[in-house]
Write a structure and sequence with these properties.
By secondary structure, the chain is mainly beta. It has a three-stranded antiparallel sheet with strand order 1-2-3, with no helix packed on it. Strands 4-5 form a two-stranded antiparallel ribbon.
Length: about 120
Amino acid sequence: MDTNLPTSTNSSPSNGQIWYNNSSNTFKFYQNGSTLSGSSIALSSFSDCSFTEGSKINGYYLSWNNANSKWQAVAPTASSLSALSDVSISEGSGIDGQVLYWKNSDNKFETKAMS
């Protein structure tokens, strides 16, 4: 597999280094003294993430919290596009096939037919 990443067993990796191990066919990541490997790695295993994975955060997004230098799972605040303060639309079938565009004079996103 050509990953354009270093390939080795890498017995002395640098912090933050990613490499592909040809003998085990796995990606490896070194962070803070630990080597993580496998086909999937839990985000919460990284030292700069602060959340517990699971169904309770389904639909959340990751947001950087500069105060504690960590990624955190955050619940979205708007339940629909029209609930956002910088969007001016009426949701429904009348906007099928339209696109959002920024209308600078109104400081809002609006919809219009694709041309």
